[in-house]
Amino acid sequence: MNLETVIASIRNVPDFPKPGIIFKDITTAMKDAEVLKFISDSLYEEYKDKGITKVVGVESRGFVLGSILAYKLGAGFVLLRKPGKLPADTYKVDYDLEYGSDSLEIHKDSIAENDVVLLHDDLLATGGSANAALELLKKFSHNPVYVSFLIELTFLDGKKRLGAAKEIHSLIQF
Ligand SMILES: O=P(O)(O)OC[C@H]1O[C@H](OP(=O)(O)OP(=O)(O)O)[C@H](O)[C@@H]1O
Ligand SMILES: Nc1ncnc2[nH]cnc12
């Protein structure tokens, strides 16, 4: 297994969910046991020595690898959810993404001030979602946050919106 095989396993779906968008479909990668293992192990290698205590995953595709990473790192997992899904007290932020707008929420009691946080999402496009996630994480602590993506769409330059992040890493760039 290698990165080329992983890249080949990601399906391009033109004009989804809107005309002009080429959707990077990771379901075709996730369903392959060897690809899933290679991706999980690669991301773990990147973060194993950073002292991460909480992995924060962005709903919904960020939950898949985020929770695997949390398990492998021996960290806790925190869910950043779309509005109205979390049952207890939350912080909320609105944001735009490549094909629309949305909101994210996090439970107010999910992170402690001394946690070392890794934010994970499957894909960085405009950076709207990740920037919103970083805004929410600032409510807990001003410590820098590590940020991890499986895929980065470099032509959208989303990284420039993530100034508050400590280190930004993506396994695959398109
Ligand atoms: O960098 P951005 O322009 O913000 O785009 C990236 C976001 O868009 C997708 O999520 P989506 O809102 O489609 O939700 P899903 O994971 O539930 O499919 C993707 O999983 C990222 O979270
Ligand atoms: N082109 C794209 N493919 C998959 N997920 C996305 N999220 C934002 N843009 C996307």
From TrEMBL:
GO terms for molecular function: adenine binding; adenine phosphoribosyltransferase activity; AMP binding. CDD domains: PRTases_typeI. One of its GO terms (cellular component) is cytoplasm. It comes from Paludibacter propionicigenes (strain DSM 17365 / JCM 13257 / WB4). Catalyzes a salvage reaction resulting in the formation of AMP, that is energically less costly than de novo synthesis. Keywords: Cytoplasm, Glycosyltransferase, Purine salvage, Transferase. Pfam families: Pribosyltran (PF00156). It catalyses: AMP + diphosphate = 5-phospho-alpha-D-ribose 1-diphosphate + adenine. This is Adenine phosphoribosyltransferase. Pathway: Purine metabolism; AMP biosynthesis via salvage pathway; AMP from adenine: step 1/1. Its EC number is 2.4.2.7. HAMAP family: Aden_phosphoribosyltr (MF_00004). Residues 33-141 form the Phosphoribosyltransferase domain. Homodimer. SUPFAM superfamilies: PRTase-like (SSF53271). GO terms for biological process: adenine salvage; AMP salvage; purine ribonucleoside salvage. Its main location: cytoplasm. It is found in: Cytoplasm. Belongs to the purine/pyrimidine phosphoribosyltransferase family. Gene3D superfamilies: 3.40.50.2020.
